Amino acid sequence: MRTGYSQQGMTIKVDTVMGIDVFLLDSFIGTECISDPFLFNLEMRSSDQLINASDLVNTEVLISVLSSDTPSRYFHGLISSFTQVGIDQEFAYYEAQIVPRLWTLKLGGSRTIYQNVTAVDIIINILETFGIVIENRLTGTYKPREYCVQFDESYFDFISRLMESEGIFYFFNFDQNNHKMVLADDTSSHKNCENGETLFYRSNQPPREFSDTITRFESTATLVTQEVTVSDYNYNTPSSQLLTNSNGEIGSGSYYEYPGYYENLSNGEKISRIRLQQKQVESKKNRGESLCPVLQAGCAFKLQDFSNLSANIRYVLKSVTHEAKKDNYVNSFEAFPDTHAYRTPRKTSKPFVSGSQSAIVVGPSGEEIWTDSLGRIKVKFYWDRSSIKNENSSCWIRVSQTWADTGWGSLFIPRIGQEVIISYIDGDPDRPIVTGCVYNAERDRPIELPANQTQSVIRTKPFAKPPEGDSSASQFISDLASMVNENSTNSMEVTESPNSLIDTIMGEDRSSRGIGNEIRFEDKTDEEEFYQHAHKDMKVDVENDLTTTVYSGDETHIVEKGNRSVEISKGNESHLVEGERKVTVNSDEKHINEANFTHSIKENYECKVEGECEVTVTGKEKHINDANFTHSIKGNYECKVDGDYSLEVDGDLKIKVKGKVVIQSLSLDGKTDTGTTLEAGSTMELKAGAKVSVTGPVIALG
What's this model's pTM, rounded to 2 decimal places? Predict the structure, then answer.
């Protein structure tokens, strides 16, 4: 086998990690294009028939194209594929594919969360992480994205869609040692082709006569979209009108896009303008062929000597296809006028999240609840491989409620450690929303299942973490423990979580007492129950009527410790009891009436006082009995009247005294309409300090 072959003096050369002359390059064909990884195919031969393909894959390679009147043109890249395709007595024949380092980003993907950074920050971070050399020619300003997720897509697709979304494009520059990825967003980024800033149209020149020659040139106009309208919704400014549009001077038709992925109208105007430029990027294009190897995608040249003088202007190369075999080189290209703003058409789809996901609620260390003024929370996705598990794990995420409006609705804030279900608005991984909470083996259900499967419950968990410097919540836990111990004969214990959250009140009668604020429904047949429990205070406000009806059964109110007050600030109070009513007061009872007090009894009235009874009336007192009145006193009876005392009896008046009757007064007058009889069983004595007078028409003595 012959050795010692050399590429010296050849038009196309190849240099690999195996050495400059190990391979002879027979042909080279490939395309470089704006916003596409270049791809070059090489056909080579070597006297070494035992080359191991694995030794060359993922290694650097350099291709050189010589020209008689310009410096060599270099192409640099990585070998992505290497194949031995044949062998004869003298050579082994090989084929290789050459790609940029950027192409390797197609080989890996992830789910990664980025917060409060611009798309450019994300793009550059990923490129630098993978060792890709970049040149930043960006001129625009880019708004930080509150939340941006790489979701089940390759790194290449992720940064591609970000660039397409923002109107960023890229191309590559080459030298003998490297290839560089150029990031651009404006026509000013297109520099002239090195040693090829002006190219001449010479359609009749023989091949390879002049390397600055364009041998074919044509222009094409294409009908494109004339108007783009975009819109979006921002829940931070829900009444804002975000609809905006951009119109072009050419084209036809209108394209509407929602959502536009922007937060305010000024950003929307920028987005609509970029979308229109992307729709119109194909409106004017030029194709041609040339002998100039220095033509490079993203660079510009000026055409000269074309028959249509209006075409002799500056053009930007969108793509160049190079083809070289032995001593011959030619290329074909596509270009556009440099006055035409280039935007890469959007061809990379944003991932669509079709289902729901689980996540865990997170927040700062030591907190039990972490939310903002909109009731949003932070979560840590189970797929998130980062070590961060706190309030920086995600953006603020809204929580779906059963009802929501200004000052009214329902509100339940998921707490740190709970598992929640995440859905995505419009399937957008950048727009998560919490749609519910679920139980798991560590966060168990509030009732025992399946034993209590007929129960439905809403139960909160008492949270006693006080604000900084406030000891009231800690005191509440202490008071609660004391209350439990004072009021129970069972062995009970109050325990707290590390975040000062009351976990349990343990005791033998645990089933009769709820923990936290609770509403529970029992639907078991013949055991139906509606249960309410307030962990501490309970307040009920009623703006109008309150009606409670017990159709069959008892009503019981128990205050184990404390007072009970009923206040009617304005209005009346009525009690209607069809059966008996019994009030038992084990201590003092006091009734205070600021106005009249009327007690009406249709049947008997009995008042029994085992001790003393005192009635004080500061005004008049009047007793009216429509039937008999009996007053029975087992002890003494004393009646003291500071003024006059009058006794009027329509019938007879009988006074029976087993002892003496003593009447002492200033004077004593007695008068009857008929007769008066005084009778004594033995002696009757009339005695006066002066005179005794007896007057009458007839006086009978004896």
Answer: 0.79
Is 526 a residue whose pLDDT tops 90?
A: yes
Which H/E stretch holds residue 600? none
d(CA 277, CA 270): 11
Tokens 């006569």 correspond to: 209
* DSSP of 237-285: STT----EEEE-SS---EEEES----SSHHHHHHHHHHHHHHHTTTSEE
Instruction: Just give the CATH number of 357-438.
Output: 2.40.50.230
CA 372 vs. chain centroid, Å, equals: 10
The pLDDT tens digits for 366-415 are: 999 999 999 999 999 999 999 999 999 999 999 999 999 999 999 999 99
Q: Which of 14, 9, 39 is nearest to 24 (CA)?
A: 14
Give the tokens for residue 594.
């600021």
- Tokens matching residue 376: 């949003």
Cα–Cα separations (whole angstroms), residue 592 to 575, 589, 597, 617: 18, 10, 9, 13
Using 50, 70 and 90 to split pLDDT, how confident is the model at 471?
low
Q: Are strands 378-381 and 398-399 parallel, antiparallel or unpaired?
A: unpaired
Query: HSE-up of 130 (CA within 13 Å, CB side)?
Result: 22
Answer whether the bond into residue 259 is a cis peptide, omega within 30°: yes
Q: Which residues are within 8 A (CB) of 133 and not within 5 positions of it... i.e. 6 or more apart?
A: 101, 178, 179, 180, 181
> Cα–Cα–Cα angle for 659, 662, 668, nearest 5°?
145
Fold of 12-100: Pnp Oxidase; Chain A (2.30.110)
Please report the pLDDT score of residue 690 as a whole number.
77
Q: How far is CA 253 from CA 226, 285, 347, 427, 646, in A?
A: 6, 20, 20, 28, 113
**205 band by pLDDT with thresholds 50, 70 and 90:** low
User: 3-state class of 166 per DSSP?
Assistant: helix
Which among 387, 389, 391 has a CA at the least distance from the CA of 378?
391
Q: Which of 126, 76, 74 has its CA nearest to residue 105? A: 126
pLDDT at position 264 over 70: yes
* pLDDT given at position 424: 96
Q: Where are the domains of the chain?
A: 12-100, 357-438, 455-533
Q: How far apart are CA 693 and CA 241, in angstroms?
A: 119
CA 213 to chain centre: 62
